[in-house]
Every structure is written in structure tokens, then in C-alpha cells.
């Protein structure tokens, strides 16, 4: 049955108008917890995207000409509106994505926090005056918005991944065309209504749903788009970087990870288990900073495993709308199959199940929080991101071995480790080839710190004072004849 929820729009938002696809085609959106159809969204393609880009281009001169203070006030208003509607936006997010309502509302408030942070940063886009090597000249450096931004976002954080891109883009004076993931388009389209309420002029923000390759293709090919910001898988990210080369766009890529979570013998085990739960099971394991591999030192291995298994077993699995639920369903059947594949492969190579290991009795795409031991580097999960509630525990003996194992991946997004030895803390943090390191903490993402990876986890930073730089071009002005 189709039910309409607050902020649920079954139309794309282009140039301040709510539109259908040119050919009236639609995509169906489902609730992953119940399988129920939530509704449809337009299946837009190349032509609608070209119009959205033209609208963003037309809106650019007036938006960038506004004072930073003016843009900041509008962004603060947008953040207020998001916060005031956190319940409704959270419910919409849980319905289409599956995560618990508490996590969904947390995400919505996190979106507001990003928008508010960049409202402030809008007013701190400083330039430079450089001492001139020539008499009678001045060297000025200013920063300008890059122009029209194309943003492609994933289903695991359907609201906050947009906030991280829209916030700095608008703060910098850019306009934006957003393509949310087809599994979770409503939280993306809701930004149209939120921006409208905040008084953001038509064309500054556009949101299109539909074919990834058609919308993505136009965003990549159109020379008016000067920057692409993408959060998603590494293979698609590589493809987009390649496509962006034709018009040499500036790119930011937040791609896959293979986060290690190292527990040394000298760690506080209870604290490590607490951190492990959040680093592993947040969003049912479906985040790019989720632990993919637990590396545990031999002396503490058994006690850590016992405590992690007990805590994993105690997690309440269910429909995210039900009170107290901590683990919602996975996004779809394909996601469940990947977890099953990783478990089957590991068991075939000698791993043992400590807890879980199967589809949950609730059916659908629910899966049991699972702990495996006896892991070895030849198993699939050692290389490939599971993106599900699977905790594989690898045993190690020495610090060098742990660091080597942690770095033995093409990815380099988030990493975590637990120790009470100060010297080791510095040593290991400096030796981990990752963009982010949590020491004795399992949840480190905040709007004030730079989020981003190295190696094949991508390029660019989101959040923090660094996050706005990706949306700015540096201009050098030489003033002579003085
Ligand atoms: P995930 O595996 O997390 O779904 P994807 O990289 O497949 O990650 O998808 C992330 C986002 O990229 C989604 O919005 C998706 O629609 C979009 N996408 C997928 N394929 C393409 C493509 N060929 N061109 C542009 N965008 C794409």
C-alpha cells in the first residue's frame, strides 16, 4: 500500500519546480524492513539533468554575489528547519533505509550540524597578501566558488551525505545538482522542500532521481559542471574520475574502506568492546568507516572474543521504527548475499562461528550479528568490504605484525586501535596508512574534523575547515603600477 509521509515527494526538484520525468517513467521505492512499497520517484535521465545543470548555472551569478554573511544566515535557517523536523525526516529515513529511528534522527541532526558548520565557514573564506618580489606591485590571493557542483550520494546515509556536500557548496557560493541513491531517494528529495522553506532561490539546489548512468553521465560530460563530489563504491568512483577527465573537473571521492580495529594486549577490553560495537554494528555494519577486520593480540584474544560475542548476541534486531531496536535490516537481498558469501568463504577456509552466522528469523534482509574467529589473510573478508553485521577476528602476536596486517589493503579510510601505552599510541597512529585513526574510540566522525581517505579510499576531505577548500578555486591577482 502506498502511504505518503511528511517530506515524501514523488517528484524531482529542478529550478524550484517539482517535476516528473519527461517520459513519466518512475522507480519504485521499498521499505527494507517490510518489503512494502513506499511509493515512486521520477526516473529522470540526461535531458532533465541537462536542464537542472542549466538552472544551476543560471542561478550561480546571483548566489555567489551574495555576501558570505547572507549565505550564512540562509544556511543557519536551513539547519534550524532540519532540526525542527528531525522526527519526520528521521521517520522517512528509517522507512526507506531501515536503520533504527534513533540512528535516523541522529543522522538528520548530524545533517543540520554540517549545514551549521559550513554556515560559519562561509564567513571564514580568507585570502592572502603575499610579500611581492617586485617593487610597485602587490600580490593578492582570493578564493572563488568553483561553480556548478554535481553530487552523487549513496543509500547508507541518505541525508547526511548530502549535507556534507550541499553545506560547503552553498557556503562557498556554488550551486548544486544532486543525485541521491535510487534505494533512498526520499531523504534526498526532502532537501528540495527544506531548501525552499529556508528561502534558497530556485536553481541553487536541484535534486534528481533516476538512472545513475544517465544522470551521472550528463553530470560528468557537461562542461558547465566544474566539480564532482561522490560518496560510494571504489569501482564507481574510479569510473567517475575517468569520465571527469574529459572536461577536467575538480573531484572529491569518498570511497570504500576496509577498516581495521586493532586491540593490543594492554587495552582496556571493556572499552574496546564498547567501541567495537559502535564501529562494527552502526547502521547494521553498512558504513564505509565500519570495522571490517578485528585484529586482536593473542594474550587478550579469547576474553575480547567472548565479550564481543555476548554483546553482539544481545543486540536487538528488528524494524527500525520499533522502540529499542538497535539493528535494522540490510538494504536489500544483494547485501545479505554478500555477508553470506563472506561467511561461507571463511568457514570453508577454517573459520569458526562464535555467534550468529545466518539470516535472522525475522526473514527479509535481516541478518544475525555474527562473530567469526580463526580468520586468515586468504579469506575474502580480509580484502573486501562486507558492509554488514559480520565481525571477523584475526589473531596477531606483535605490534609490527598488526600494523602490517592493517595496512595490507588497497584501502585507507578509517582505522581504530586500543592501547594504554602512550608511545605505542603515537607509533601505531603514525604507521597506519589511513586518512582517519581512532585511538581508544570507535566513533570519530564529527562535522568539525576532516573526513576522508587515502589510497583507493579516495581524495578530498569533508567537514572541518578543510572541507570547504574542495569547493573553492584559488585566484592570484597581481596589482602593478603602484
Ligand atoms: P553502493 O554499492 O554503496 O550502492 P555505488 O557506488 O554503486 O555504491 O552507488 C553510489 C551512488 O552512485 C548511487 O547514487 C548510485 O546510483 C550512483 N552510481 C552508480 N553507478 C553510477 C554510474 N555509472 N554513474 C554515476 N553514478 C552512479
TrEMBL record:
UniProt keywords (A-Z) are: Oxidoreductase
Q: Where is the signal peptide?
A: none
Q: Which NCBIfam families match?
A: SSADH
Q: What is this protein called?
A: NAD-dependent succinate-semialdehyde dehydrogenase
Q: Catalytic center at which residues?
A: 254
SUPFAM superfamilies membership: ALDH-like (SSF53720)
Is DNA-binding one of the keywords UniProt gives this record?
no
Organism superkingdom: Bacteria
- What InterPro entries would the database entry show? Ald_DH/histidinol_DH (IPR016161), Ald_DH_C (IPR016163), Ald_DH_CS_CYS (IPR016160), Ald_DH_CS_GLU (IPR029510), Ald_DH_N (IPR016162), Aldehyde_DH_dom (IPR015590), Aldehyde_DH_Superfamily (IPR050740), Succ_semiAld_DH (IPR010102)
Q: Which GO terms describe its cellular component?
A: cytosol
Q: Which family does it belong to?
A: Belongs to the aldehyde dehydrogenase family.
Say if the entry is tagged with keyword Oxidoreductase. Answer: yes
Any GO BP annotation = gamma-aminobutyric acid catabolic process
Q: Where is the Aldehyde dehydrogenase domain?
A: 18-477
* GO MF terms, alphabetically ordered: succinate-semialdehyde dehydrogenase (NAD+) activity
